[in-house]
Design goal:
The termini are far apart. With 83 residues, the protein is α+β, with helices and mostly antiparallel strands. Helices cover 27% and strands 40% of the residues.
Length: 83
């Protein structure tokens, strides 16, 4: 199974106040479908933007063959630099 680590949109569409979950999901599934694991979140509405990624879970999934999208990779690298 090909697996991606990508973002899933959550939040209220009426107010355009979106938050994002960072999830592990099959490459062939739609953005908002069932996920395998939730590994973090990203909230761009807060100033500065709030995000948190569980690096241990991400590293476990990468060892098992998961690939990150570019946006998630950027947030992941920021998280690793802060530790």
């Amino acid at each position: 199974m090909e697996v991606k680590i990508r973002m899933q949109r959550t939040g209220a569409p009426a107010q355009k106040n979106y938050n994002w979950r960072i999830v592990v999901i099959s490459k062939y599934r739609a953005r908002d479908s069932r996920v395998l694991d939730i590994v973090g979140y990203y909230d761009p509405a807060k100033k500065p933007a709030a995000y948190k990624i569980d690096t241990a879970k991400v590293e476990k999934w990468i060892k098992n063959g998961a690939q990150m999208t570019d946006t998630v990779r950027t947030l992941y690298n920021k998280t690793k630099r802060l530790k």
